[in-house]
Amino acid sequence: MNTEKRVPCPACRQPSVYSPSNPFRPFCGAQCRAIDLAAWASEGYRVTAVSTTEGEDYAVGIASRTSPSNLPPPKSLFQ
């Protein structure tokens, strides 16, 4: 019985073995790993930051930035 865990490859969504036997994990292979690395290198992945007002308490700023009601709506991929 094969007990290796399989997860979807983050790049192509095909099943990928998630164990030490797969040197590219969580990716299915070298090509998908390279595609993901290129996306990071070209700043294809971005995290939205919400700035706080000047003089605001640090703890309050953290709470307001992480509150779902204060985050901008997600942008559509098909604009």
UniProtKB/TrEMBL annotation:
SUPFAM superfamilies: Glucocorticoid receptor-like (DNA-binding domain)
Keyword Amino-acid biosynthesis: no
Cofactor: record remark: Binds 1 zinc ion.
Cofactor: Zn(2+)
Gene3D superfamilies: Erythroid Transcription Factor GATA-1, subunit A
Keywords: Metal-binding, Zinc
Binding sites annotated in the UniProt record for Zn(2+): C9, C12, C28, C32
Subunit structure: Interacts with GyrB.
Family, as annotated: Belongs to the DNA gyrase inhibitor YacG family.
Official protein name in the record: DNA gyrase inhibitor YacG
Record organism: Candidatus Symbiobacter mobilis CR
